[in-house]
Amino acid sequence: MDQYGLRNRRLQLPHLEFFLGAPHSRPRVWILRTYLNGYGSRVIKDPPQPILRNYGFHNYKNDAEVKKLKVVYTKILAKADPLEVDKVF
What we know:
The protein is an all-alpha fold. It has one domain. The protein is built from 6 helices and no strands. It has helices spanning about 5-10, 15-20, 30-35, 50-55, 65-80, 80-89. It is elongated. The mean pLDDT is about 80.
């Protein structure tokens, strides 16, 4: 990336090299982040299976409760290192 003038951009993305270099399975926290942020312009309504249990979404039965949990995780991930969050779960 650096050779193409993207060094500053790369440095703004913590864990990018880890994420891109991870073999077949990446930490589930990246799936959680994708779910919380949507996928591109598409909003993901239901939590993907890998995060249902790990992050507690299987305990909630209605959209309002799921929305509250999404807010909690969004706040946590805004301040915490995603890989440290993944270790907890």
